[in-house]
Amino acid sequence: MKKKFQLLTGIGCLCLCFLSCSQPPYKNPALTPEERAADLVGRLTLEEKASLMQNTSPAIPRLGIKAYDWWNEALHGVGRAGLATVFPQAIGMGASFNNDLLYDVFTAVSDEARAKTAEFSKEGGLKRYQGLTMWTPNVNIFRDPRWGRGQETYGEDPYLTGQMGMAVVRGLQGPEGGKYDKLHACAKHFAVHSGPEWNRHSFDAENVDPRDLWETYLPAFKDLVQKAHVKEVMCAYNRFEGEPCCGSNRLLVQILRDEWAYDGIIVSDCWAINDFFNKGAHETEPDKEHASAKAVLTGTDVECGESYASLPQAVKAGLIDEKKIDISLKRLMKARFELGEMDNPELVSWAQIPYSVVDSKEHRELALRMARESLVLLQNNQNVLPLNKSLKVAVVGPNANDSVMQWGNYNGFPGHTVTLLEGIRQYLPEAQLIYEPGCDLTSDVTLQSVFQQCSMDGKQGFNAKYWNNTKQEGEPDVTTQISTPFHFITTGATAFAAGVNLTDFSASYESVFRPEKSEDIAFRFQTQGITKLSINGEEVASGVNFKNNAKIYTLQAEAGKEYRIKIDFMFRFRDAALDFDMGREIPVDLNKTIQRVKDADIIVFAGGISPAVEGEEMRVTIPGFKGGDRETIELPSIQSRLLAELKKAGKKVVFVNFSGSAIALTPETKTCDAILQAWYPGQAGGTAIANVLFGDYNPAGRLPVTFYKSTSQLPDFEDYSMKGRTYRYMAEAPLFPFGHGLSYTTFRYGDASLSTQEVKEGEQAILTIPVSNTGERDGEEVVQVYLRRPGDKEGPSHALRAFKRVNIAKGTTGNVTISLSKEDFEWFDTETNTMRPIEGDYEILYGGTSELKQLKAIPVTIK
Description:
The protein contains 20 helices and 40 strands. The radius of gyration is 28 Å and the shape is globular. A hairpin with a 4-residue loop joins strand 37 (826-829) and strand 38 (834-837). The chain is an alpha+beta fold. The relative contact order is 0.11. Strands 13, 14, 15, 16, 18, 20, 21 and 23 form an eight-stranded antiparallel β-sheet that branches.
């Protein structure tokens, strides 16, 4: 029997050996990804290599390579691929100061991504927004509140950004050391890139001081590369010191590859290589062949775009050696093997995650928890909050019932979004509630949408058909349903729908409008492209590039009738946009608003701005906004005027501010009794805010950015010097400082102790801080630890080095311990232009804010 077993075992080993030996090495999952990639690259033609180095990589059937698109998004949930749990926008999650919770969030996000990819894989090769390579997190420093994309970051502080960014990477990529990676994350946009949006394709961030480079712009990227081992880095659109970032020898070769020993993938931002040669852009190279060669030679491995198709011509012209192309391609193929994308899914444990995790109950609860932890109570005069549930409440403002606003940008689509109005309705009967929109975000005329009165084939909203040609020829390439007012824009390389071209496409949207009453209905558009509106088969309006949400038609609607609406759209070049809504136009009458809310005991005003006016390279023609950025940071004047009138009427006002960045709320601190910063809080935002307003949750979020008093406190937007910016370099007093946030209880800091007054190599300094809850409620406190080097007159006033969010019961004291290693005492060395622990005397500052006068100090020496 024993001999028979040995014989069978030997036969099995021979069979395995035969199977292994009978297939090419790149197909053998027993080999390392490096070995498999090297073998596969050697079998490819030059033209095939070039095709695999573009984000949309075609199938190569002769080698069994499936189609794959490197481009996927997961900024705050799986983006742009249908149903997904939508967590708060990144800046809001930064306000949680809870990197452990952020790790849990992105573990959930990666679960959903893997489940969705498995589902998409059943249809064949993976298309855009279906793959396993997530182009997140954005760890650029939010240096100026005017930047529209600052909402995608974790704030203005390098340490906070690094800690939050590493949590995202670890949650997405999964545990290290397994046979297959869960996903691949991407640190973007490397590195000196924080607006403006309107000129990012030609802007040169030149003359950046070495101190600002190493102390502000690079630390978060270094953390993600060297500590979290992020698998991808995305280079930015702009130039740095004269070179486009995606062809920057200084950034990509000297710093990233050589100094940091990064051996992962570098991906270009979308169409950034075209900026090398496009007229009006950088124009550093004469054509796409030179641009592609330059980018690959400086380490950009995969292009989001199509210029790399010219690489074979670049080789023939002697601009680049094919061996240099092989270096990049090996990195790309290695990554695909690491993810298991080239193997049988049955071998990959991550591929077995069930689709039921998508928007699951557990993930919805996690979205609610993160939304709660993101909320920052900025002001609470005379403890007007929390609200008594017996009060009559008027909910006023343009953001009170806007679900799409809550999604932020780079978002997925939740099963349901709770708006602030819906959240308050969970607490109050209709008899105690007044809803009055009051005003638009920025305009003196507000549009009360009737979009939800449109439906077709039993589904609410519009049926959408897309063709990847400009004449609606043939069968549609994509069909889908649009259930909310349109907000489509391809800047930032965002397709109107998955599978639709960014250029040279056409679309048709149809629905039936069944008006509930007879009235005039305005059709508003803001477009970049050719648009035609038809009603009941008759063309009623058309045009090119409508601006400023123009009213292009008014329908005299009659109750009981049906109106078949059709919108045709065509676009040929870059930067398509289509914003559409329909409804009754109501001129803002502040007196009427006051009269309608006169019986309310308190006003909850939902204001601020919206991703419709701030974001990535947007074509918005509204005073005060430019290209997705803001020109001024004050609250839009129509909202300020309404708040002032409510104050004059003797109303107590709780202002809930929705925004992706800091608003200069100086007048509002006088017209409003309480101010709650809500960011763009995701699908559970309305519930979370209502929980805070009515006292079922005690807020503990902290500002990850400085709230300035006015635009006049800001330096030139295009100046990348940190002088005068953020809490670290600001000389004037802000409106609300970085790290600020109130609670429904109070905390007192005792005198901290330090385990050693001299920190030496290999040692830990243990800081123990007694924190007492002296109020009437249990609550959370964010303990913040800053470092100051008294002898440094040119550096930051102080810099965050640790934080911990802790729960302390009322009437108790908690001893919060924080370990500081020598590495935590890194400071800029002006002699060597490096960050390193410099010997000498420092001060450790600690407390619940960055405001110096509220912090306690303890001395320490670095040996």
